[in-house]
Amino acid sequence: MKQRIIGSYNKLKETNIISNFFNLSSIQISNILLLILIIPIITRAVGIVEFGVIMFATRFSQFAGAIINYGTGQSGVRDVAFNINDTKKLSNVFYNTLCIRVIIFFLFLVIMFALKWFPIRYYSYLLLSIPIVFAEVFNPLCFFIGAERLKIFNVINLASNIASVLGILIFIKSPNDAGWVNLILGMCSVIAYLGLLIHLIKRLQIPFYLPSKTGLLKIGKDNFYLTVNNLSVNLQQSIIIFALPMWGLEALLGPYSLCDRIIGQCRNLLITISNAFYPNAAHVYKQNLSLWNVYRRKTKYLLAGVFFAGSLLIFFLADFIVFTLSKEHNATAVLFLKIMAFVPTVSALNVLNVLDQLLKNNTVYIFRIAIVLFIVSLLTAFILLNFSNYPLVGSFTLIVEAIALLMYEFTVNKTLLQNA
Q1: Which residues contact 320 (CB under 8 A, 6 or more apart)?
Q2: Strand, coil or helix: what is 360?
Q3: pTM
């Protein structure tokens, strides 16, 4: 038994999975520490109501960032991993990715300028959140994951988070300063990501490549379905936050946003784990499909077990977590968090299903699921908010995640039968 464990460890060590996991986990731990530090600082300075508005603007920026990323955060990992030893192809991937992000960001700025003449709620908050969107143009995480060079990213990410906390401590003093929170967070990320990009270019000796129309159109076509899926996932998580003010339920925006941020960190941890496995999973998949299916099933249930233990911990410590982060014993937030505690478990069951479809490049299936889930999210939010029932509102994410799991399970089994 001991020899098997040692053998398994050595195999994982050879594939860089352990190194990738700990490096990506360090990024996630840094982000969790930022969450623990920054929420009490913000809520003490501006209050839980303004915190909800800040999160509203943050969600909008993340949605816009998902458009600007255009699926390159996922496809980029695969493309860099596949072409890491081919400098010319790596250069194509690198500069085509940056170029398409810049083009989409420019279009985003035009739209934001045009919205000035419309009665957009919290428009000033959205404007001050533009740096968060701009940071996504330079976000180099996919390049570092694909190249399996994450140590420097860890260090700079931690430094950026520390700078964000210090900036908020210095400049955010009252509710009137609330809108500037996202500006500080965004600018710290922009500076960090730009520096990391320059470092990567020098380290990998990536020559400049003038993006071609053909290359950009290829990304536009190949990543379209993936982008729609990402937007659907984003809306599944955000639509309830966007809808609460429209239904006159601003009082719930702060408590719900707080819990959403907590559960969001669990999602990010899942993404971290998925990204740690992604480069090796691509190699396993290329070698043998049967081996990949065994690998996928084992990893799926292992992850689900780990995250179920975490869900139980969140459920029983809900009041402590809410008080630690907000310095309030907010009954609504505690209720929301207890309901949402099991979302990470459902997501963990699904993460390898999504990775399976990405590796098989089944972007059409991903697109179809995304469209259905978007419709389901809209209908679910509409129904729950019309009942104005707090437990039902808190169950929104859990309902949508469960439906997503069922749909991906069906799709994975369908593709297995087709390949049999």
Answers
A1: none
A2: coil
A3: 0.74
